[in-house]
Amino acid sequence: MALIRWRPRALGVILAFSALAFTAVTAATAGAQLTPIRHVVIIDLENHSFDNVLGLWCAQNTARCQSASGAYVGMPAHVTLSNGAVVLPYGSPGQPVMPDVVPTVSHTVASQLAAMNIVRGVPQMNGWQNEHHTSCAATTSPPYQCVGGYRPGQVPNITALASQFAMSDTTFSMADSPSWGGHLYLAMASLDGFTGDNPCLPHGSCSSTVGGWGCDSGRLAAWLAPSGKRMPVPSCVPDYALGLPNGGAFEPTPVPYHKTIFDELDQAGLPWKIYGAAQRSDNGYKWAICPSFAECLDTRQKSNLVDASRFSADATASKLPAFSIVTGGGAGSLAADSCHNGLSMTACDNYIGRLVRAVQYLPCSVPPCPVNPLWSSTAIFITMDDYGGFYDSVPPGTNADRTRQGPRVPLIIVSPYAKARYTDTTPTTTAGVLAYVERNFGLGALSPNDAQAYAFTNAFDYSQVPLPPEVVRLVHRSPATGEHIDWAATREAS
Question: Which pLDDT belongs to residue 9?
Fold first, then answer.
């Protein structure tokens, strides 16, 4: 039986919202910024670096891809690796296109550190041949599949949104981690001591996702004790206030409780949902965030985890909550739309277009369709949970809690109040998205990382004439002829 978690500071937080309050939430605390944004949506899909998705678009739009110092920060014409090999990136002029089915490249913590090639504390971003996978170990033609990107025509919705709205060319993943860690820090701006690597079966596979991840999965994840000792513990952030054995973990764990953005939203009386894989199956929850937190899995918070297929219906009915996260996975074919290694990039680009269009327009049989009332009060952040093993040219920095950041990820801001055709060059991380949410709604910070993160303030202009949705044309395409989905490759490569 699911338990209700009550803390003295949160009494009365879990409320039933009327339909009006559900769709037109006002800022809940005195610390909230006065903005027209009442709905924040994070579309957090799978496994691509900035250069892999937008680097070749940058090569055609160099003025949009410059650092604060004016240096170009897109895909270079060639990459010199630490072994002296010179690689011409996939997708660049005269080179083979990046295949529509995303190459399977290792993106474990070890592979990430090897690729960044950190010398005296400084990532050189040239060790890609050292990633733990054969697709990045070749020294002859064709070039390494991990070094390259998608041409703008291969991802037309992504590049159209980046072209017409705001995007960041200096957003880094918050940690060296594949998907599990990426989803942890999207919820709490911290890894709570976990190394970030995907959980493994005891004495067994780390690649298969059968059984899922999280507090009820039986899977173990690497955790660093305060002493520095590395140990396998349940893949779970426990909550001992629940009164459950082991704080809700499947076996005893030394991991401490850590609050999440969902706690802050609950305390402020703001509704939220995670749109993802809501039902446990042979593949577990498939990248869902909630099951990794006992507080979410074993309390009423779990009712806020709904299938990803509901997002479009909620959006077109103008019933999005104040805060939404859309992750990969879900009923039917939605797992195939996640951008994950082994899956079609065309299908993912189509999916992003469908999600954004659901916020922009009401459904109709004959275009032009009416503008969705939600559009005037929504900010959508589109990003990826980790770099997926793919090349990026810009070295990451260090977080406020002194942990190392991971490679850049794409980040696009779609909103009527996003600055048109604007590039935000201020360095930040995924924690900056949480910082935006916290400052917009007057919520408390979760860790030093979001408390001190840059929150994309330069990317918005709330005094501008709101951008209409028709500034961008979103399309739907069939996957390339002859391409196929490699379902085996969707298992997180170890």
Answer: 32
CA 50 – CA 149 distance, rounded (Å): 9
- Alpha-carbon distance of 191 to 447, in angstroms, equals 10
Q: How is the chain split into domains, by residue range?
A: 15-54+62-76+151-490
Which of 106-120, 205-219, 248-262, 300-314 is predicted with the least confidence, judged by mean pLDDT? 205-219
Q: Which CATH number fits domain 15-54+62-76+151-490: 3.40.720.10, 3.90.1300.10, 3.30.360.10, 3.30.70.870?
A: 3.40.720.10
pLDDT score recorded for residue 117: 95
381 touches 148 (CB < 8 A): no
pLDDT at residue 348 is higher than 70: yes
Nearest one of 61, 90, 87, 83 to 73, comparing CA atoms: 61
Q: Tell how strand 378-384 and strand 118-119 pair up.
A: unpaired
Instruction: Give 179-192 as a DSSP string.
Output: HHHHHHHHHHSS-T
| C-alpha of 426 from chain center | 19
> What is the sign of the dihedral through the CA atoms of 413, 416, 422 and 427?
negative
Q: Give the mean model confidence (pLDDT) for residues 348-373.
A: 95
pLDDT mean over 461-483: 87
148-199 per-position pLDDT tens digit = 999 999 999 999 999 999 999 999 999 988 888 999 999 999 999 999 888 8
pLDDT in tens, 285-309: 667 899 999 999 999 999 999 998 9
Distance CA 215, CA 247 (A): 9
Out of 72-76, 235-239, 264-268, pick the least confident.
Answer: 72-76
Q: What is the mean pLDDT of residues 59-88?
A: 89
